[in-house]
Amino acid sequence: MDRLEATLFEKSSPGRRGCHPPSGGVALVDPVAVLGAELVRETPPALPELGELQVLRHFMRLSQLNFSIDTNFYPLGSCTMKYNPRVNEVTARMPGFARLHPMQPMEAAQGALELMHNLQNDLQEITGMDGFTLQPAAGAHGELTALFMAAAYFRDRGEKRTRVVVPDSSHGTNPASAALAGFEVITIPTNAAGDVDLEQLKQHLNNEVACLMLTNPSTLGLFEQHIVEVARLVHEAGGLLYYDGANMNALLGVARPGDMGFDLVHLNLHKTMSTPHGGGGPGAGPVGARGALVDYLPGPRSARQGEGFTFETPSKSIGRVRMFWGNFLVLVRAYTYIRHHGPEGLREVAEGAVMAANYLRARVKDAFDMPYDRLCMHEFVLSARTMKEKKGVRAMDVAKRLLDYGFHAPTVYFPLCVEEALMIEPTETETLETLDSFAEALLKIAQEDVALVTTAPHTTPVGRADEARAARKPILRWEGEAP
Amino acid sequence: MIPEDLRYTKEHEWVRLSNGVGEVGITHFAQDQLGDIVFVELPPVGTRLEANKRFGTVESVKTVSDLFAPCNGEVVAINTRLNSDGDDFQPELINQDPYGGGWMIKVKVDNPDEVTALLDARAYGELAKS
Questions:
Q1: C-alpha distances in Å from residue B75, one per residue of A191, B14, B39, B49, B103
Q2: Where are the domains of chain B?
């Protein structure tokens, strides 16, 4: 592996310090006498010893090795890596939000409560739900929250429903959340058009199924054409329909999960509402519910009280799923994004995202396999199957070679129902020139010398990592000599 | 490419039957589809296997897949070179030698007829092609 930046341990020099505090002016205490010898180290911990400027430069250099949406195009499918408007950062840094203490009395945080209340209402309007919780910290947390709500709902009705159905194109978090919530997972296949196979769905629906979890548009980037029929079938069998909001960017202001018949939804504010996504988070995965399910939402939620706002917990609430008030400053960013776009602006977001994806799809489709060749929504899935069979070039190789052209790789080998999948989501925030240069890079890679592609990347700070060895024999901490 | 003397499942496991004991692994086609294999989870010796039910998992850099029992029986040996706790475990043997060093478990088969009723090399070849 290339060496880019030595570790702090390697840069350590005995006795070097970031600061030398003055004497405290009080007598030193022997820790052994106070704490007892069993609690005191015999030898000091093996920590690196450096000056402040060295440490700052180390982390600054590491940060510059990062690839990010602020530096390059990032068409990572199902992740909605859009531009994060800087105005979001302005509002999130307003002292009235940023300096609030989580235990501040409600009377002294009315602005924050009003923002949460307004955001709950906006998300209800965007999704067609009757109520929202802002607590879940990210998408999978939202899924788990909604499944706990579904479990409580059926328990109260005296129904024993132990199964959750997911299509084979679902995000891996769907079956994982269902299993974590104590359900048995049933996977059903996708039909040749890329939709839920209705016959298979009918076969598996019965009075043991609590919920069908669906992403619409699906991870194939396709709008579920029979969604109304799917909803009817699930409801007739007494089950609930859950909307995975990962791909909501395609539908903002155009169509609403509630109108399609979904009972529960989560949104990924860090994707759709640009709060931003990546960098280790935090995210926000609010959950919305319709009808009787609203009573089961986690609490407390912001609610109107006279002229002001207060926190209330729904009557049959499953309780808290996050300490305090969720990732509040993420909510501020999402609210800023929603208000500065407005209803028409959000619709344009979706239209732009769908147009960009279809433009790219049309430009590159002839150079790859298109397992589902129809108009897509905000993303599309190519396959390198023929390329692999004819030349031994895999999706992974194409992805790695894209790095040489200055583009982040698309999502690869997902969804699982497509062989050698490359899943591309350009988002609405890229220029035509960027989309064109990405398309040209893909077309060029399809023609390039096999050895060049299968050994890529060649221009990045780190070349091709040995993923298998990294997974088989990971080195997770400094294993050299103590400084 | 597909050994003639083995039997195969639709889930891409192979069985080599000898004196009532079946050696089980995954096919060349399966390892090629999975890519570099990084971890294998196998059942302890003594485990009862039920035909077509999951008996373990195989994890590659791309995905995690279930392993399915080709027949009813009892596990009498596992290939510890694939997943021992030591530093020298070599799951890559499945990629390098799927029909040999990459074998996974040995099963004392309840009824050898169950194994001979599985796919032969020609039938499996047709399946892998489709």
A1: 38, 15, 19, 7, 13
A2: 27-108
pTM of full prediction above 0.90? no
Give the count of alpha carbons within 13 A of A157, CB side only: 16
DSSP-based helix, strand, coil % in chain A, nearest 5: 40, 10, 45
* Separation of alpha carbons A263 and A154, rounded Å: 13
Q: Which token pair is B122?
A: 């020609």
The identity of residue A253, as a single letter, is G
Whether B4 contacts chain A with CB within 8 A? no
Angle CA(A202)–CA(A208)–CA(A211) in degrees, nearest 5? 70
Distance of alpha carbon A445 from alpha carbon A426, whole angstroms: 18
How far CA A407 is from CA of A107, A220, A455, B33, in Å, comes to 49, 21, 17, 26
Q: What is the CATH number of domain A87-341?
A: 3.40.640.10
Angstrom distance (rounded) from CA A321 to CA A325: 10
Q: Does B92 touch chain A (CB under 8 A)?
A: yes
In this complex, is the C-beta atom of A26 within 8 Å of any C-beta atom belonging to chain B? no
Residues in B closer than 8 angstroms to A471, CB to CB, are 36, 38-39, 59, 61
Quote the tokens at residue A69. Answer: 């949406």
HSE, side-chain direction, 13 A CA sphere, residue A95: 0
As a whole number of angstroms, the distance between CA A32 and CA A321 comes to 42
Q: What are the structural domain ranges in chain A? A: 8-64, 87-341, 348-470
Put simply, the answer to whether B61 touches A473 (Cβ < 8 Å) is no
Q: Which residue has the tokens 């840094």?
A: A93
B63, A472: Cβ pair inside 8 Å?
no
The tens digit of pLDDT for each residue in A288-322 reads 999 999 999 999 999 999 999 999 999 999 999 99
Helix, strand, or coil (residue A89): helix
Burial class of A219 by CB neighbour count within 10 A (0 to 12, 13 to 18, 19+)? buried
DSSP conformational letter for B110: S
Strands A287-289 and A131-133 come out as antiparallel
Question: Do you find a cis peptide bond into A257, omega within 30 degrees of 0?
Answer: no
Task: Return the CATH fold of A348-470.
Answer: Aspartate Aminotransferase, domain 1 (3.90.1150)
CATH of domain B27-108: 2.40.50.100
Question: Is the ipTM above a cut-off of 0.85?
Answer: no
For the stretch A427-482, pLDDT in tens is 999 999 999 999 999 999 999 999 999 999 999 988 998 888 888 778 888 887 76
